[in-house]
Amino acid sequence: MKKINLFFAILSIVLLSSCEGFLDVKPTNSADAATSITTAADAKVIINGLMSKMVSSNYYGRNFFLYGDAKGGDFAIRSQGRGNDALYVFNHSATSNSYSGYWSQMYHCLLQINNLLANIEKIEAAGKGSTTLSDYKGQALTARALVYFDLVRLYGKPYNMDKNALGVPLVLTPLDASAQPTRATVAQIYDQIVADLTAAAPLMGKTKTLGYLNYYANKAIQARVYLYMENYSAALTAAQEIITSGKYSLYSNANWVSSWSTENGSESIFELGVYLSEADLGTSSLGFYLLRTGTVKGAMGWFMASDSFLARLNQDPSDVRWGIMDYDETYSETGVKRYGSCRKYTGVDLKGDKGSTSAVNIKVIRLSEIYLIAAEAAFPTNKELAASYLKEIRKRSPNLPVPTATTITMQMIKDERSKELFCEGQRFFDMMRWNESITFNDDFISPAVVITHRPQTIDRTFYKTILPIPQAEMDANPAIKSQQNPGYSD
Q1: Model pLDDT for residues 153-199, shown as the tens digit of each residue
Q2: Residues of the chain with pLDDT under 70
Q3: CA-wise closest residue to 400 among 414, 411, 383, 412
Q4: Helix or strand or coil: residue 74?
Q5: In terms of DSSP H, where are the helices of 54-99?
Q6: How far apart are CA 404 and CA 387, in angstroms?
Q7: Cis amide prior to 455 (ω within 30 degrees)
Q8: CA atoms within 13 A on the CB side of 103
């Protein structure tokens, strides 16, 4: 095998795999990476290909969101062996269920980004830059920051746990096939993320376009990153800029449920398009993994809400978010409808706005999350401000008391994040940065099984809360072999 994952072939592969539809650009050639990008139009082709690759099943198209939910305690599995249950039971080693697709797909995206940035620099050095080209440069830098943020959370310890622990290789330029990059620290990765986001923001336009990053998406990612770094002032500033811009608006309670059947709505800050002929994973899609067995042909009830999540949502039986929940397969045994299936990624009517159960867009960052970030970031120093942001999301639970400066608690914010961001890949990472233990709803599995790869309750000291470096990567890059994550070495 060639140098894998970090060292995918030249950019011509990327050009050949660019898509149509929401990308709306067809590649015109498969020229060498060093000469193929000479104009802003060429840069757009590469951005299009990048957005397509981010909807891969190994990234936002399915598995990355599943990772954040299956491991976070808000999910349970009905039965082992249906698919991706290794995420729930933490059955990982360097050679088995390593989920190397995360590593390979994200570094493939980084290769594309780094090639694009290198070529943009050549164009600018030749005096042929433009505002449009600068915008694509900003999008590339922002995308690189997002990919590294996702990678370091998979393979490195939480920033507030040990920022000097090893993260992932930090690759910022196209690599020679013989290169053997080693792992940078978590702190170094976060420093680069912040540097990329800061450099990108002034280059980017503020127009909202489906499938593309803009200035406010950059600010939203900044808000996320700073929250993880516990730089609450910076997180709040970024979140407030989005909220006060007037570019986005929260859904009313009457419209929240239907928003999941609508693309590019008023809350969507960064959304990736999925269409019948483009990026649609069909029965392997994220939406199908969350449906009750037999809801539609191919659905097998892979993942369902845990008892603890349903109890949280049931703090208010009138919570509008019940509207995207469907009953799960326990009904066939008990005759009681337990609403543990989620229709966020199938459209509430199982059709979406494209007439397809599986061709439903992936909402990567929504305005609701920004309000919750603002509430959490303001909480340590300004309870009144925190309550003002939290209450806007808590309105979705109309029978719960309105939070005030004297009644708001951090637990309210945590509960609201769970309820609002369910199935959006956030819960596990939240629990890790909050340094909270996770108790899994293992009793829900039928027939009962003994789970040997983790205890029922874990915390972030459990070594399998971060993934192993895949064996294939260590074979291809011997320099990284001595840097395997603790607990996974032979």
Answers
A1: 999 999 999 999 999 999 999 988 788 999 999 999 999 999 999 99
A2: 1-35, 490
A3: 412
A4: coil
A5: 63-70, 85-89
A6: 5
A7: no
A8: 25
Question: Quick one: how far is CA 196 from the chain centroid?
Answer: 18
Residue labelled with tokens 């609002």: 420
User: Where in 45-188 does DSSP place strands (E)?
Assistant: 75-77, 166-169, 183-185
Model pLDDT, residue 35: 61
For helices 367-378 and 215-228, give the axis angle rounded to 10 degrees: 40
Per the CB < 8 A criterion, the answer to whether 415 and 315 are in contact is: yes
What predicted TM-score, i.e. pTM, was given to this entire model? 0.93
- Token pair belonging to 72: 């976070």
Enumerate domains of the chain plus CATH numbers. 5-452 (1.25.40.390)
366: Cβ contacts below 8 Å, ≥ 6 apart: 267, 268, 269, 424
Half-sphere exposure of 20 (CA within 13 A, CB side): 4
CA distances from 216 to 85, 148, 278 (A): 35, 19, 26
Q: Residue 74's beta-bridge partner residues?
A: none
Structure tokens of 334? 């008990």
